[in-house]
């Protein structure tokens, strides 16, 4: 019951996320029931007693303009959502707010999931001296929207490398090497124009320990006011390539509301 009500809150929030230059006025009923105080609040909230790896956790992303000309209305809605959640939150809810006026929602969701991965017990103890090699699988965009998955992959791999826990292989990836030069230079063997002592020897490429893959899918729901709410589910997983076991997985839900015919970014 609460989750249905909460997603209604998200629908109101995402209407703001898609608004442009005009002003925004929150509904009187909303303010009367949940208040209109604007307060400094965290970008991520968790409720109840559970770990970051709890499979029963509900992770919800709320899109709001928290900067720019619509920031005041966005912060008001954010505070109201937080107050409503605090009144009757389930014991396994994680809420993350994204500023749609400043950054991309899928990139923000990727940030949240990468941090979840790095905190996971499977990877938390990896030291810089024992970094693991990770290869990139596919992040499939199973939606009608144009989403730059290459940009998402780059953001994820940069964050993983900077963590000191992982190093990326470009010699192996889904669909072929991300950089073919590792193979190209080895084809120079026996070419008299090159000093053979400088050519990479056989058996020097490092096989990856893990692979990262994911999927973005979309479900559309028609709201009572006739608008269409799109729920985007962004899923990522990391697989141990020796055993084939998934060592980590996570999913973020992103809501977007549009007109009666379509939802676009």
Question: Keywords, please?
Answer:
265 residues, 29% helix, alpha/beta, single chain, 29% strand
Shape: elongated
Helix count, DSSP H or I runs of 4 or more residues: 6
Low-confidence stretches: 12-42, 47-52
Mean of pLDDT: 78
Sheet having the most strands? 8 strands, mixed
> For the largest beta sheet, what order do the strands appear in spatially?
1-3-2-8-7-6-4-5
Instruction: Output the radius of gyration.
Output: 22 Å
Distance between the termini: 29 Å
Helix and strand succession?
HHEEHEHEHEHEEE
Q: Using DSSP, what is the number of strands? A: 8
Helix content: 25-40%
Give the DSSP E fraction (strand runs of 2 or more residues). Answer: 25-35%
Structural class: alpha/beta
Describe the structure.
- The chain is α/β, with parallel strands linked by helices and 265 residues long.
- It has helices at 2-17, 28-34, 71-88, 105-119, 149-162, 181-186, and strands at 44-47, 58-64, 93-99, 132-142, 166-173, 210-222, 228-240, 246-258.
- The chain has an 8-stranded mixed sheet.
- The longest helix has 18 residues, at 71-88.
- The radius of gyration is 22 Å and the shape is elongated.
Topology:
Blueprint: H1 2-17, H2 28-34, E1 44-47, E2 58-64, H3 71-88, E3 93-99, H4 105-119, E4 132-142, H5 149-162, E5 166-173, H6 181-186, E6 210-222, E7 228-240, E8 246-258
Parallel strand pairs: 2-3, 2-8, 4-5, 4-6
Antiparallel strand pairs: 1-3, 6-7, 7-8
